[in-house]
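Try it yourself: sequence plus zinc ion, in.
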Amino acid sequence: MGIDYYNCEICNEIFSDVGYCGFCGKCEAYLCGHCLDKMREKNGEIGEDHENAGDYGEDAPNGCDICDGSVIDEVSFINFLTEKIGKTRSELEEEYRNRNASASK
Ligand SMILES: [Zn+2]
Ligand SMILES: [Zn+2]
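Structure, out:
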């Protein structure tokens, strides 16, 4: 049986899925046990009537620092930025590389 390792989406700590960990009941972020407890304390539990209770358990936190905006997920932020700018990520990467190239001349 293999053990999978994940990065906590809030604190970036690496945890294994055999240890204590869980999902945010709201945005489905995968959290280490430490953050899971903290978010549960801060936002309460989703409760048994919640639509996600079957998937994540009724004691999953009802929100976390990611869905309330305290912590911004870098990947979705980059997606948001590229959308705002109206260029694709690879176009921007190209510009970034060129910028570096001309700066080192
Ligand atoms: Zn964490
Ligand atoms: Zn969340």
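One thing you can check immediately is this: The mean pLDDT is 91.
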